[in-house]
Amino acid sequence: MLTRRLFLKSTALIGCSAAAHPLMSTAAFASAPGDNRLVVIILRGAMDGLDVFQPYGDRDLAALRKTLSLGPDHGATDLDGFFALHPALSQLLPLWNAGQLGFAPAVSTPYRDKRSHFDGQDMLEAGTGTDLQADIQQDGWLNRLLQQMPGQDSETAYSVGVAQMRILRGAAEAKSWTPKANMDLSPQAQLLLTRIYHDDPLFREASAQAIEIVSGLSPELPEAKRGQEHLELARFAADRLNGATRIASFSLPGWDTHAGQARGIERSLTRLSETILSLKADLGANWDRTTVLAMTEFGRTVRENGSAGTDHGTGGAMLMAGGAVRGGRALGEWPGLAEGDLYAGRDLMPLRDIRAYAAWAMHAKFGISKSALEGAVFPGLDMGPDPRMLA
Amino acid sequence: MLPYDHLAAFRLGYGLSPHLTPPADPQAVAASVQASTSLAPGDVTQDQLRDWQIEGQELGRNRREEMPGADEAFRAHRQQMNGIFRGAIVQRFARAVDDPSGFGERLVWFWADHFTVAGRNHYTNLMTEALISDAIRPHLTGRFAQMMFAAETHPAMLTYLDQSRSIGPNSIQARRNPDKAGGLNENLAREMIELHSLGAGADYDQQDIEQLAELLTGLAYYPRQPGVFQRRRAEPGAETVLGTSYGGRKGSLDDIRAVIDDLAVHPATAAHLARKMAVHFVADDPPQALVDRLAGVFSETGGDLGAMNLALAEAPELATHFRVKMRQPFEFLVAGMRSLGMDGAQIRDLPPRKVGLHLIQSMAIMGQPWASPPGPDGWPEAAESWASPQGLAMRINWALAAPAALVGRLPDARRFLHSCLGDTASETLAWAVPRAESQADGVALILASADFNRR
């Protein structure tokens, strides 16, 4: 049970970010054929890619940022002579050196101009352009991926937490799991409950899963320590991935750094770093077949704002990690930061659709055809040339 | 045919109580909202909170200077703040349980969610309640523009959406302190248009956000500074938002009132709020005819919320879309305690342990931790969001364990079925209840049922 934690809110709340509350985190799990594993981490709130992978080699950066993204002279680590890694990710340097960490510095979904978190996240998780009908957009791309897989109808996808991530919403079956609600029911009460829920599809589904999960499907987990929910999620995900699960997705909130970004992003990056290292440690030998993609709904303004933060932008960075990636490098071109290079005069210009990287990963690791990816999983996506991101 | 008093109680309120007579016609339901516009003892206001914050700052300073007894005094102050917050939460439950109609307290929840602020520490927790006392309750039957102005300029909002950190780049303050970083923060400006008025799909652009952000400079809350507007932080000159020019030379709260007055009656705002109300009270996917009617009432009356309340109470869609909505955790708990025959006094008398376990923690595990919505867009509406297996598991747990803990002697389950659901129980539930092994299981079946969890 929760104790005082309700009153001890995560201090990672900045601007309009969601709380890193245990009951707010969601994860989805799906099994698939083969040994390859894909982990998608949604970074909610719009991560400032310019601060994570600092393009200190771009001479226009210094004029745009006064207190942020100051490069190798201020604690960041040089990666390739042009980009430097934010100090809060320095625990990941061994991965970079081993070719197990890479990034795409200038990507985005097709979402443009409104810069609303909610719409941006919907597009990232639904994986479709806004020109499609709403009912197609409602469906999550993980689910559409599952529908492309042979024998998927015998698979189970779990979604953990309060709100199902849209990424897993759709026709494929999803289950929820939480370590914190246990039922105490007599067999007769169970039977009667099953009967009274039978005629209400929503309740029928939820109650069947609840009873099924409580009666032994979910492992006992130790109470998460405050501020450690991300590790609980990472451990649970790794545990699943060591079993039959091949695709896992969950989100890390706290990236909406409108003010005092230096402190806020440090906390969020530390969580991201710990999450990746926890996955690596727990996956053991399976790490070699794992691809982790960390994606955010859009980037942030190239200019620092008046409160040492950044506002909603367009182009941003995607991080990839895992034994299966060809890392140690930046993927794709760099658009530049000169006035004429920017999107709408304020944002980093995205050079590639972020969903193309997810699509190429699925193509390589789960054998999904390009036509299925561009037609069914991400309708309307142009995958473009192979970014050769995977080993 | 369900009688109107029961229909309105289920759909616009918190269900039935064996001790309360719900209003019997739409006019009476709409009129009942008035009761929720006044403050009750224990309601927190920002004026009180300002003094507490100043006191807390002083106690914190004493503690840093290691003055004798300062540590204890600081801790006692923190505990006092916690106690007041908990008292305010209990008061919210108690008022909702006691309200014969329930519509007013439901509207308090709806508008507080529309103008979402979240708590992060002792003071911001209390601010979430102060915003309700100061900005929501007084305007439940008034003009939306007045509620919007009160909410947008409330310290809770200025703090939650970073407005207190936004300074005009050419303001007096910025010019006097050229070395200090300071400038615009768009957060409040964006949510004011995207969430609080026009809606994300409306016809506005980034330029409107930036201009509004400039217009809002000067708005800031610091406990020791009087009011919420400091001219020295305001950007000089006029700004153009949605084609209209506001302000002029020096910046003032009147300019901000002017832009809010316009945003509040914009046609896109009428459509956005009409849909939102229909979604919350009637159906996740509401009938367009209802949305259009509500938007029409909003536009014709210049955003008169009293007229909106009546239009909602009169809507035939209350009956045609019965029980397609899922009760959110707060509603579930209030409806549960109401149907068990509890009154506000009993809730206020509950020991803190029971409040923590059966109200606050239970609500959190059901997916609704108090004052911690996932983001500035507030709590989700879709039934699927609340009918997760673990959310339902917690409701079943509550139905099994809480009634005996809260009221001691349980009602006879067969009688409870009627006092709780009137004539609306499904055949299956009526069949199941007498077959339960105990009164406790019978009561739990009713409270955990889809009949009870929907409205």
UniProtKB/TrEMBL annotation, chain A:
Q: Signal sequence span per UniProt?
A: 1-30
Under the heading InterPro entries, the entry gives: DUF1501 (IPR010869), TAT_signal (IPR006311)
Q: Which UniProt keywords apply?
A: Signal
At the top level, the lineage of the source is Bacteria
Q: What is this protein called?
A: DUF1501 domain-containing protein
Q: What is the lineage of its organism?
A: Bacteria, Pseudomonadati, Pseudomonadota, Alphaproteobacteria, Rhodobacterales
UniProtKB/TrEMBL annotation, chain B:
The protein here is known as DUF1800 domain-containing protein
Pfam families cross-referenced by the UniProt entry: DUF1800
Q: Record's InterPro entries?
A: DUF1800
Can you name the source organism? Paracoccus liaowanqingii
